[in-house]
Amino acid sequence: MPRSLFRRLACDSAVTRVVFGPDGAVLDVGRAHRTVTGQMRRAVMARDRHCVYPSCDQPPSRCEVHHAVRHWADGGETSVANGALLCYHHHDLVDTTGVTMRWREGVGGWAFTDRHGRTIADPAAPADPVMLGDPGGTG
Q1: Which one of 20, 42, 66, 130 counts the least CB within 10 Å of its CB?
Q2: Which contiguous run of DSSP H or E holds residue 67?
Q3: CA distances for 82 relative to 61, 76, 110, 129, 132, angstroms
Q4: What are 74-121's pLDDT values in tens digits?
Q5: Helix (H), strand (E) at residue 84
Q6: Which of 36, 52, 121 is nearest to 86 (CA)?
Q7: Which pLDDT belongs to residue 128?
Q8: CA distance 87 to 57
Q9: CA 58 from centroid of its chain's CA atoms
Q10: Cβ distance 109 to 125 under 8 Å?
Q11: What percentage of the chain reaches a pLDDT higher than 70?
């Protein structure tokens, strides 16, 4: 299975790891990784209100909750803090092109970076002092 498909399925799946020995005996059964619960989805929807990709305003009905800061496939937890609303198109784009996301502390909202480290900017969003090269956030 292609890695991109695995990552996409892992965003909204319940998966249990089962390790078999050479004779077919079960050696280990890992813990199940749960999908976003209804309560978590409602909390993410209340915070994000629409697709959070820059310049996108698709409503929650057209969005999925993405494991944003750290993907589940990389050990990320399923939580409100690690979840972000992305429309189907942008969810696929983020999962297949190496886009990373981080929560903008003190400013709020999500910051997106492409696989080359360049900021994907939303012209309507407030400036992020860290992204402007001011680590102290003093402007």
Answers
A1: 20
A2: strand 63-67
A3: 20, 8, 11, 22, 24
A4: 888 888 889 999 999 999 999 999 999 999 988 889 999 999 999 998
A5: strand 83-87
A6: 52
A7: 52
A8: 9
A9: 16
A10: yes
A11: 67
